[in-house]
Specification:
Blueprint (H helix, E strand, L loop, with lengths): L2 H4 L3 H10 L22 E5 L8 H4 L6 E8 L3 E2 L3 H10 L3 E7 L6 H11 L10 E4 L11 H19 L4 E4 L1 H8 L9 E4 L11 E8 L8 E6 L2
Parallel strand pairs: 1-2, 2-4, 4-5, 5-6, 6-7, 7-8
Antiparallel strand pairs: 1-9, 2-3, 8-9
Helix pairs in contact: 5-6
Length: 226
């Protein structure tokens, strides 16, 4: 069962692509989505809200990658991150970690919180930041100050991991905070539950109600861009 994931030939190619993410970015081509994964690769994202995972059963599902919540704000740590990371890695999936970004907190200490939890591991997916209105707090200091803090956060992660962080967001948040700003080089992971997203993207979250073996309750389902 595990060997079917390990033998997938694209894993080595994906690792090479991801290793190159942090190099040679002079004049990045932002006219097309950054290629993080093979076209149409299927994945999920998990946090402690999904409860304990039966990874033996989940490993029977035809999945290719998983993003795991590592941290939130300046001091919250997802209590299941480390065990989920080790289990997902053993399945041979591409694995990445994400941080839920709080607009009311400074960017640098949020980056420090994430970096403390997530080691630099060659061949993994780039770090991701979850930017959305739900469960967030009001930005302090106005729009420009908040965007400056976000840039500090993204810059710290890029320096640590040698790759441009992925930006997970919703169409509403993207329109209000990111459109027209200087974030175009970052791969976009977009939530669009009513059909394929209109904007450029690398990953599409197309459902929040997936049902998979080994996980109780609904699971977010994601697909790499074609």
């Amino acid at each position: 069962m595990l060997a079917r994931f390990v033998r997938r030939p694209w894993l080595a190619a994906a690792a090479l692509l991801l290793g190159a993410c942090g190099a040679g970015r002079e004049g990045p081509d932002v006219s097309a989505p950054a290629r993080l994964l093979p076209p149409g690769a299927e994945g999920i994202d998990l946090s402690h809200h999904n409860g304990p995972v039966d990874w033996g059963r989940l490993g029977t599902e035809p999945l290719d990658f998983v993003y795991l919540k590592a941290s939130e704000g300046t001091d919250h740590i997802d209590p299941r991150f480390q065990e989920n990371w080790l289990a997902a890695t053993r399945l041979g999936w591409q694995v990445g970690a994400y941080h839920f970004y709080l607009l009311c907190h400074a960017g640098a200490p949020q980056a420090e919180n994430f970096i403390r939890q997530v080691e630099v591991r060659p061949g993994t997916l780039p770090p991701a930041v979850d930017l959305e209105h739900a469960h967030n707090c009001k930005a302090r200091g106005g729009r420009e100050a908040a965007l400056s803090e976000l840039r500090a956060f993204l810059g710290a992660l890029e320096a640590e991991y040698g790759a441009l962080p992925v930006i997970y967001t919703t169409p509403a948040f993207h329109a209000e905070w990111l459109a027209g700003e200087d974030f175009e080089a970052h791969p976009v992971w977009i939530r669009s539950l009513d059909g394929a997203p209109a904007q450029r993207h690398a990953i599409w979250q197309y459902s929040m109600k997936g049902r998979l073996a080994g996980v109780e309750g609904p699971v977010d389902l994601n697909r790499a861009a074609d």
